């Protein structure tokens, strides 16, 4: 389901470099599998795939079916790992343009899945409340700690709004949080909200395959079982150190990190994958960026950004590597019309497909950027569907764990994110 092509990047290294780093990468891989590395108590994201809880998937599907039936809007409140995974998968797989009914089935349309609590814009919340007026709204508050300001502040605004409009407000609020503690947990207990647990051994950025991601994804009408089992399959495949694309990816990144490269671009040519890029940014940024180490992760969307950042990538400071995230099989090609003239200068494309043009844009970009001095490699996704996407999510989680161990950091903590919070709370006069 996932293929990793690093052939072009290898030309930036000495012939034996990859082989030389392999024993270290394999040792890091073993630390992950054998739970001997720092942060090993936070490997719950693997455990839940090694022992799938089908009853939980069933339960989430049942809740999602009720919400799909009742809601016009499913509003997810969360930030960082508590929304990026859900948003990424929904953007990748749900229809990009909405219609009043699903064309073929004549069924009423799916609820709109919206996000809030992922920043502190009062303006956004005000406009959101105005938009929600008159609609049937369900709210999913997602926070592992149950204390994150952005999320909890949005909930404080939404809760009275819901209570004032819906006699069954308590049933419309679903809380996803720590199973035993925290303010959100306690509120759910007090007010009788439905509750889903984030296992204690799963950090926010690794939580997409828990109810954090699965409930919103299921509400969006996506097959969570296929997504989940795609990840299970990839998890099983990556236990073997030989022919292991995650290990190769981690080893390659490490080699360039050690050679002074500072930035990794994750470039997509399919806008639907931009959300995966945003999710990947948090995954790699929070896991690696500590002790003065790590590649700065930057997600970029082509060909859009070739017209803004392309100049820098081609000729700017040579301190970046580029990883393309591509889809192998594209369904429903769109044929470029033959208009019978060449007024727009595009007659040479008539009869070919837009997909082919996009593929050539990728091939051309890969060559140009490599020629310009950027080591490039490509992660290939078999197709845009729940199974391969689940495999892709696991691929990156496995890779970042190996990568963190190669850098000799704990890939599962994020002590640095507290610094701004301390300053902000001091300014706000938090008791
Ligand atoms: O789920 P929580 O506890 O609200 O945290 C949200 C996000 O905030 C962070 O803790 C960073 O502040 C992330 O690691 C996490 O994904």
From TrEMBL:
Hey, which family's this protein in? Belongs to the GPI family.
Q: What does the UniProt entry say about where the protein is found?
A: Cytoplasm
Which residues carry out catalysis?
A: 286 (proton donor), 421
| Keywords, sorted A to Z | Cytoplasm, Gluconeogenesis, Glycolysis, Isomerase
The pathway noted for it is:
Carbohydrate biosynthesis; gluconeogenesis; Carbohydrate degradation; glycolysis; D-glyceraldehyde 3-phosphate and glycerone phosphate from D-glucose: step 2/4
| Recorded GO MF terms | carbohydrate derivative binding; glucose-6-phosphate isomerase activity; monosaccharide binding
**Which Pfam families does the protein's record reference?**
PGI (PF00342)
Protein name per UniProt: Glucose-6-phosphate isomerase
**Does the record's keyword annotation contain Iron?**
no
């Amino acid at each position: 389901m996932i293929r990793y092509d690093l052939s072009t990047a290898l030309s930036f290294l000495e012939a034996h470099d990859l082989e030389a780093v392999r024993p270290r990468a394999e040792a890091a891989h073993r630390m992950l599998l054998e739970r001997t590395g720092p942060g090993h108590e936070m490997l719950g994201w693997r455990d839940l795939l090694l022992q799938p809880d089908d009853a939980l998937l069933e339960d989430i599907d049942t809740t999602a079916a009720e919400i799909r039936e009742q809601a016009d809007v499913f509003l997810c409140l969360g930030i960082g790992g508590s929304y990026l995974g859900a948003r990424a998968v929904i953007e990748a797989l749900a229809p990009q343009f909405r219609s009043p009914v699903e064309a073929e089935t004549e069924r009423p349309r799916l609820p709109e899945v919206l996000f809030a609590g992922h920043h502190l814009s009062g303006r956004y919340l005000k406009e959101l409340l105005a938009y929600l007026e008159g609609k049937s709204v369900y709210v999913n508050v997602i926070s592992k700690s149950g204390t994150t300001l952005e999320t909890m502040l949005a909930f404080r605004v939404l809760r009275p709004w819901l209570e004032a409009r819906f006699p069954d407000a308590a049933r419309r609020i679903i809380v996803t949080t720590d199973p035993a503690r925290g303010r959100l947990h306690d509120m759910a207990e007090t007010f009788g909200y439905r509750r889903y647990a984030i296992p204690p051994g799963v950090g926010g950025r690794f939580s997409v395959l828990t109810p954090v991601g699965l409930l919103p994804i299921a509400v969006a009408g996506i097959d969570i079982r296929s997504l989940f089992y795609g990840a299970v399959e990839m998890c099983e495949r990556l236990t073997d150190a030989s022919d292991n694309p995650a290990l190769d990816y981690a080893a390659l990144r490490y080699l360039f990190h050690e050679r002074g490269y500072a930035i990794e671009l994750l470039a997509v040519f399919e806008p639907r994958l931009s959300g995966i890029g945003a999710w990947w940014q948090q995954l790699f940024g929070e896991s690696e960026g500590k002790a003065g180490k790590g590649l700065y992760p930057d997600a970029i969307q082509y060909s859009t950004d070739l017209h803004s950042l392309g100049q820098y990538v081609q000729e700017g400071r040579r301190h970046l590597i580029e990883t393309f995230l591509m889809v192998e099989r594209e369904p429903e090609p769109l044929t470029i019309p033959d208009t019978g003239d060449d007024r727009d200068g595009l007659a040479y494309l008539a009869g070919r497909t837009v997909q082919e043009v996009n593929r050539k844009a990728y091939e051309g970009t890969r060559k140009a950027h490599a020629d310009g001095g950027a080591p490039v490699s490509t992660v290939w996704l078999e197709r845009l569907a729940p199974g391969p996407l689940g495999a892709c999510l696991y691929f990156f989680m496995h890779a970042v764990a190996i990568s963190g161990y190669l850098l000799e950091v704990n890939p599962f903590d994020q002590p640095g994110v507290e610094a701004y919070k301390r300053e902000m709370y001091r300014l706000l006069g938090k008791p």
